[in-house]
Amino acid sequence: MKTIYDIQQMLKKFGTFIYVGDRMAELELMEEEVKELYKAQFIEKEDFQMALLLLRGEIARMKDRSKGEIF
Fold first, then answer.
1. Distance between the two ends of the chain, CA-based, in angstroms?
2. Is 0.85 surpassed by the pTM of this model?
3. Selecting from 3.40.50.300, 1.10.260.40, 1.10.357.10, 1.10.287.760, what CATH number does the domain 4-65 have?
4. Are 56 and 62 in contact (CB under 8 A)?
5. How far is it, in rounded angstroms, from Cα 2 to Cα 57?
6. Is 48 in contact with 34 (CB distance < 8 Å)?
7. Which CA distances in Å does 55 have to 11, 38, 40, 52, 71?
8. Is the dihedral of CA 44, 49, 54, 60 positive or negative?
9. What would the pLDDT profile of 8-31 be if each residue is shown by its tens digit?
10. SS3 sequence, 7-70?
11. Nearest CA among 33, 40, 41, 35 for reference residue 16
12. How confident is the model over 42-52, as pLDDT tens digits?
């Protein structure tokens, strides 16, 4: 697992499709779904850790970008 797209594909295997039109909300929902899959022992520890690392990194990048924008 190397990208957010890979996480989306993994979630699809479990019947989870996330699209709300707000990228930050989608990333947070994906994080919650990954946690639930791990708690239910549907995914391995390594996949869980990598997914969280990727999602939290993308969330941090989105927050950094939004700080730079002028409203």
1. 35
2. yes
3. 1.10.287.760
4. no
5. 12
6. yes
7. 13, 15, 19, 5, 26
8. positive
9. 999 999 999 999 999 999 999 999
10. HHHHHHHCCCCCCCCCHHHHHHHHHHHHHHHHHCCCCCHHHHHHHHHHHHHHHHHHHHHHHHCC
11. 33
12. 999 999 999 99
Give the tokens for residue 5.
């797209």
Residue with tokens 């479990």: 14
Q: Give the amino acid at 18.
A: I
Residue 2 DSSP code: -
- The DSSP output letter for 6 is H
